[in-house]
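## retry 2 of 3
previous attempt timed out at serialization; input unchanged, resubmitting
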Amino acid sequence: MTTILVVDDERSITELTRLYLSREGYHVEVAENGQKALAKARAAKPDLVILDLMLPELDGWEVCRRLRRESDVPIIMLTARGEDVDKIVGLEMGADDYVTKPFNPRELLARVKAVLRRYEAGPRPPRVLVAGDLQIDLDRREVTVGERQLTLRPKEFDLLSTFAQAPGVVYEREKLLRLVWGYDFLGDSRSVDVHVAWLREKLGRSHAQIQTVWGVGYKLVVVEREDEKA
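## retry succeeded, writing output
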């Protein structure tokens, strides 16, 4: 029997979702916070996870990040309506689909079936991000600028990947700390500044550059260099 793990701290949502999924013959496990979600995922080995982003203890981004380190289980994220950046980041961190709240249970059920069909059909294609001459292979954790391969520290790779998921989008330092370093990180925003400085040095003359947005944070932009124009 196909097992689905539903992670949400709203009991009304988990119970409604359990009802619809059970009617279709799925076995449903439930977790109400991030820590329990990881424990249930490791114990029950679900075939799919429905994961809310706004969770107590560990948020959905951190749960997704940790699950992706351990398995290739398909993940459908539940996001707040209108939070486009959250959807983009969630998908690029490894989620397979998303549903916005409030949602129609029939729509969620249709997406569950579609994602499971894709996984039954075979392995997913490699996930690759491209920004100008910058290319990031998320599965191999390899980064190239043109023909040049970069050697990055783990957090440098994670930080650059986060920027490349949504070029032009401004990320506040606090959000980068949560997405890259994790929910329980005890450091401060200077860690972001130091890693950005390292990345700028390694990117060199790449068309993909990390720009400072004063008083807010950073963004990745693709620029055309004057000396390369025809």
